[in-house]
Design brief:
single chain, 355 residues, alpha/beta, Lyase, Ornithine Decarboxylase, Chain A, domain 1, 2 domains, 6-stranded antiparallel β-barrel, 11 helices, 26% helix, binds pyridoxal-5'-phosphate
């Protein structure tokens, strides 16, 4: 038998969450964002479960071409566009829609005869200062793309830095609108947070990611409250027990010290499986469906959980690290990160089963 850890992926949850996104999006078309191996859920599986989306958004040519090879004929948006001149021929060959966000890409496109017309996304930097053109060059980019004989359509795009936070989208939306006001083209702005919270940002296409996987983009609103279902459950089992006396310690660095008699379970899951090493003592975990806490430092292949109040817990008792019954958002918050990072970090060594 293999080590008892596994990741259970629910296609039904993915499909459900896309329906939730669809209800919020009303008329807007939906790019299902499946970058980073579909946030750890498996590219092909996620693409299939999210087949009701209008297109897929991702990063890698290699992954996009793999989807095409599997028969996917929906639009595919490459969120960072292309990186080298030799990539450009692949755009036409595989009907990929690049995000164009810098002047070098424009120069490459102007020099290249495409073998077939392509659709392009023009990325506007509306204040996040990550990728995109702003006031000094957005017109140049627009004219170059709009005037390219082999660019069939241009869509205007931006990305919000704080749609989930206190700043919201208003300032970026206003700046984007003023930068693009004279340009007649469809628009694509909203990530999950903007889709859920700011209908005025929906425009023609939306780009939800995290919500499709059943997590909340908001610190103060749970996925369950948003009607989302967790698509990934990371599960394992107890493989060892220790009884501790007051003053005894657990794990590397002796970082946890028992102040009273207690029992701990050792769980077959560590940071080499993708569990965050920085999760402190007290991070929530389910043992036999009961909520308890981790104790001590997370090791490469194991972590310890407090089972003092769970007399039924024994070798083989199931443990849920996150997912069904315990939101990855909550575990992430305890570990000082976001669910995105937990989901994406699921290690290749963890066997995946579909449920
Ligand atoms: C990742 C990403 C998204 C999806 O964001 P979520 O917060 O996961 O919904 C949308 N747009 C761009 C440009 C992205 O990089």
């Amino acid at each position: 038998m293999p080590r008892p850890i596994q990741a259970r992926i629910s296609s039904r949850a993915l499909t459900h969450n896309l329906e939730v996104a669809r209800r919020h999006a009303s008329q807007a078309h939906i790019w299902a964002v499946i970058k980073a191996n579909a946030y750890g859920h498996g590219l092909a599986r996620a693409a299939q479960a999210l087949a009701a989306a209008d297109g897929y958004a991702m990063l890698d040519f290699e992954e996009a071409i793999r989807l095409r090879a599997q028969g996917v004929d929906k639009p595919i948006l490459l969120l960072e566009g292309f990186f080298k001149a030799q990539d450009v021929t692949l755009l036409a060959e595989y009907a990929l829609t690049p995000v164009v966000h810098n002047i070098e890409q424009i120069e490459i496109l102007e020099k290249t005869a495409l073998s077939a017309p392509i659709d392009a996304y023009l990325k506007v930097n509306s204040g996040m200062n990550r990728l995109g053109f702003t006031v000094d060059n957005v017109r140049i980019a627009w004219n170059a793309l709009h005037g390219h004989p082999q660019v069939r359509s241009v869509t205007l795009m931006t990305h919000f830095a704080d749609a989930d936070g206190a700043s919201g989208v208003a300032a970026q939306l206003e700046w984007f609108n003023s930068l693009t006001q004279p340009m007649s083209a469809p628009r694509c702005l909203a990530n999950s947070a903007a889709l859920l919270r700011y209908p005025q940002s929906h425009a023609d296409w939306v780009r939800p990611g995290i919500m499709l996987y059943g997590c909340s983009p908001f610190a103060e609103q749970s996925a369950a409250d948003l009607g989302l279902k967790p698509a990934m459950t990371l599960a394992s089992e107890i493989i060892g027990l220790q009884n501790l006396q007051p003053g005894e310690h657990v794990g590397y660095g002796f970082s946890f010290e028992a102040t009273q008699e207690m029992t701990i379970g050792l769980v077959a899951c560590g940071y080499a499986d993708g569990y965050p090493r920085h999760a402190p003592t007290g991070t929530p975990v389910l043992v036999g469906g009961q909520r308890t806490r981790t104790v001590g430092r997370v090791s490469m292949d194991m972590l310890a959980v407090d089972i003092s109040d769970l007399p039924e817990a024994y070798i083989g008792t199931p443990v849920t690290l996150w997912g069904e019954g315990l939101s990855a958002d909550e575990v992430a918050a305890a570990a000082g990160t976001v669910s995105y990072e937990l989901l994406c970090a699921l290690a290749p060594r963890v066997p995946v089963v579909e449920v």
